[in-house]
Structure formats: C-alpha cells, structure tokens
Amino acid sequence: MNPKVDVYLEKCEKWHKELELLRNIVLDCGLIEDFKWMHPCYTYGKKNIVLLQDFKNYCAVLFPKGALLKDTEGILIQMTDNVQAARQIRFFDIKEIEGQKNVIKAYVFEALGIENAGLEVKKKKTSEYEKPEELKQMFKDLPELKLAFERLTPGRQRGYLLHFSQPKQSKTRTSRINNNIQRILRGKGLNDCICGLSNHLPKCDGSHKQLN
Question: Average of pLDDT values for 102-114?
Fold first, then answer.
C-alpha cells in the first residue's frame, strides 16, 4: 500500500469506506498501488490498469483503456462524447460495491490482459473531428486564420475544436472563437504561454503574460 493513498483516503470523508473497499478489491488482483494525477492508481509492469476516483455524487473505478473492455455487464460509462479511451464504473453506496466484487475483479483482470497484450484504443484523427459551423464561417472570412490553424500541431487543433464545440449556443461558440483568434494566428495552443510552454502554466516565472 502506498502511504500517499492513505493520506488521500483520510481526506476523502464522504466516500472513504467505498474507496477503501475498492482499494482492497483492486489490490487483491495483484496490482501495485501508486498515486498519480492526485488519485490512487494501480499498475502492473509500470503500466496503468485502473484508477480510483471520487466525485460529489459518486465514486468510481476508471479504466484508462476501458473502451476495449467487452463490458459484459453493461456497466461502463463514457464520461463525455469526447472521451475516447477511458471508461468508468460508478458507485453510489458501499452495498453496490459489495454486490459486485467479483464483477469488478473480472473487469480488472480483463483490463490487465488487454495491457499485457499491448492493445491500444484506436483514436479519431484530428481530421475526423467535426468543426463547428461558426469556425467554418470564420475560416471563410479570414483565410489567414484557416492557414494558421492548419499549421498547428494535431494536439493543439483538437484542443481548440473541443473547446469551440462544447457550448450549446451559437453566440457562445462564436465568442470562444473570437477570443482565440490572435492565439491561433501566433501559432499557440489553447493553454500555451508566450514563453512557449504548453500546458505548464505553473512553471512560468511570471516574467510574461498569458496570451489574450
């Protein structure tokens, strides 16, 4: 057992009993306990097999490659449409966990087999992501924006497409696009700073400002 997980469980008052039980079930499958991304993570051969999560209304077992599981019980949940690989089993009380111990273990062992076989989730290419109509129109109005967008790395393009597509209202989507035009023209990703660091804003020394 990893002492960092002990600290995590002590702070998690609402789901303490449920997560403690899930912890024991997963450890009984022969996995190694680690602590990654601020959550208990269980590995085999340094590869992530499952994570434990706590939320306001439920706790969960997360399978990073859950999309490859057969899900014979029909209990896996895709968190959002944009999540391609990971899947959750959600629990709302300890009785649910107690009643599904064997099922949880079966899913864990299947996930372990998938990892040992070296299987990977086939993810959508950037070109397969749908562009919101507002962005398509903006590309027509500003050809230089379209060119700058196409020069971005695939990861940066996906980040923008997901960000622009999330709002339900057209005016909100348009606002998000307008707010990021200069960033795209400068070749920056959604979370990039002037210093060039991507997704590492806490590492910046404060000598520059984030792009507006």
Answer: 98
